[in-house]
Amino acid sequence: MTTSGLSGITAGSSAISTVGKAGFGLTYRGYSIKDLATLSTFEEVAYLLIYGSLPGQKQLDAYKKKLIGLRSLPDALKTLLEAMPASTHPMDVLRTMTSFLGTLEPEGEKGRTAVSIGDRLTASFGSVLAYWYRFHLRNERIDTESDEDTVAGHFLSLLTGKPADPLKRDALDATLILYAEHEFNASTFTARVITSTLSDTYSAVAGAIGALRGPLHGGANEAAMELVSSFDSPQDAEKSLLNMLQARRLIMGFGHRVYKNGDPRSPIVKDWARRLSEAAGNRTYYDISERVEQVMMREKGMFPNLDFYAATAYHMCGIPTAMFTPVFVIARTSGWVAHVIEQRADNKLIRPLSEYTGPKPRAYVSVADRG
Ligand code: COA
Fold this sequence. Notes:
The protein has 16 helices and three strands. The protein has helices spanning about 35-40, 40-50, 55-70, 75-85, 90-105, 115-140, 150-160, 165-180, 185-195, 200-210, 220-230, 235-245, 265-280, 285-300, 305-315, 325-345; strands at about 15-20, 25-30, 30. A three-stranded antiparallel beta sheet has the order 1-2-3. The longest helix has 25 residues, at about 115-140. The chain is globular. The structure holds coenzyme A. Coenzyme A binds near residues 220 and 251.
């Protein structure tokens, strides 16, 4: 029996997160996503995912200090970032940079493990994005250190060259928590398939970035921004959306393979989108988004997924649209690496079967006789 897109198939077991099949809603190692997103910080959650338990204060302080110490970029990597065309999509920047760092700081050398590589990538992705962005778009060669002690604050401050605004930093921090882990989604499954061949952590993360890039997966937050910003007003959004639905167009940021009655992460990010919009005195995209949500519910019975309001929230944080999915990478690396570790702990090559639909066996005909 085959299932289109492996829909509904349980393809392995995991103790890292559940999307609610056990009736508890989305949880990371047993903790509800709502509690984590409202009460904890991204560093606590990354630690929880990679190291297996929530850190105590001392462990958290040491972990944050460790991440701060892993932000700098080797000169060879800076040279590579400068050599990439300004038109490169930042997801390609991250994918390429991950591969390259794997040659400069290979796994297995100098005691490097999946855990230490996860920390290194989580700490330095923000530096890479900001270095590439400021070099190509503002003609600046920046120092990749900052005074911020969080991953979210570091990224925002390097991107803008100013101390991070506390509300924007907290909003970004909360969305990093929401994006950090999601069971056997396409990019995580990619990472597990790569890991199952006994390949290295950089390859697993680079492959996962490739999978995340597409608009049916992580790329949906950028596509949602394009959609929302294409409307002038809520009225325009309603009218245009009805035409799009009539034409059976896919509405980005809606629908989910697993959640059919609502994405538990969406109300949390929606609230951040509202708070940021109100703080800026500009509810244009928020109001348009709400109207899109209402029309999708009325016409299709569909709920927004995390990516839909993440678009408005990130826009109001001043993050360029092309950086939305890369921000998802910063968050999800902790989830991917947790899965690399879990896959290795009880590995079996992932190699399913396919149902053959090709021609029956037939005789080979030489080129000369093929006509
Ligand atoms: N806009 C309009 N219609 C949608 C839709 C959307 N975003 N998502 C699903 N549908 C429709 C499908 O066309 C299908 O209609 P049909 O039965 O008339 O053919 C029906 O809803 C069922 O969808 P299905 O393709 O079975 O869902 P799926 O589980 O395969 O797909 C997604 C899930 C996420 C790939 C899909 O909803 C989608 O492409 N969403 C937009 C991209 C997105 O936001 N991705 C981020 C996911 S977190």
